[in-house]
Amino acid sequence: MTERTLVQAVNAAMARAMAEDPAVLVVGEDVGTDGGVFRATEGLLGRFGPQRVIDTPLAEAGIAGLAVGLAAQGFRPVAEIQFTGFIYAALDQVVNHAARLRTRTRGRLTCPLVIRAPTGGGVRAPEHHSESPEAMFAHIPGLRVVVASSPARAFGLLLAAIRDPDPVLFLEPTRLYRAVREEVPDDAPPLPLDRAFVLREGTDATLVAWGGMVPEALAAAEALEKEDVSCEVIDLATLKPLDEETILASVARTGRLVVVQEAPLTAGFGAEVAARVAERGLMSLRAPVRRVTGWDTVMPLLRLEQRYIPSAARIAAAVRDAMAFA
After folding, report:
1. Known catalytic membership, residue 129
2. How far is it, in rounded angstroms, from Cα 326 to Cα 324?
């Protein structure tokens, strides 16, 4: 058994995928000699060589376009975008080509690529380095959106994403890269995509979170337990397609739902979760759905960043508010 951080688990998943399948390539800025800005690709160049670990120019549109072309020709590229704040230049390639290739060719071609990117705040990075744009990408038909929240889930989900025949955006919370260590064996199996994970069972309220908000939701649940409030915690993991059934089953048990996202409030993915429950689980609810989110502003710099990111205290307050309803 090997203890790994989240970024080490990402590295190990790519190394295993490359060892198992020569069609798997890694491309991106500084992924070769430097091992990536967070060292997620460290050691891969020495092990697999420059024809499979390819340093690119600083051009996100070019990285995504290269990945689409490679995928269309039978490779399985894993493309790194250094920060999600830089990913918008790649939108044209993702929206108009990667996500549409299967439909455009009536199934003759697929686009088995993974785009990896650090996401979210918590490390006091400059502007453009702390974005949480998952809702934007979840709105794109034909694109899977996966967000890791622990070393073990990062390893298993990334393996599954690389093996998937269609494009996957794989987001890795920057604040969790080296936050904890977890046992992640080299031979751990891939984890299922499109399925949420119930991390903690409860009877009074359901907390739904993803990425960097999962530890905060777990901390809130632990604090509320001391107040005799039992919270069930769900890590969505795959936002698109969304595992509605796990959420609905939990809300049927608890009667209350609190959705936690780091992204700004308006049009965030939490609104989608709330809408699905309103459409299919309204009669289970004993209180209005609560959302705990970032604010409708650009992530503030340095010291104010921690006031922006939802905390366990804010989550617990939302649960207490929901519990106040009969």
Report:
1. yes
2. 6
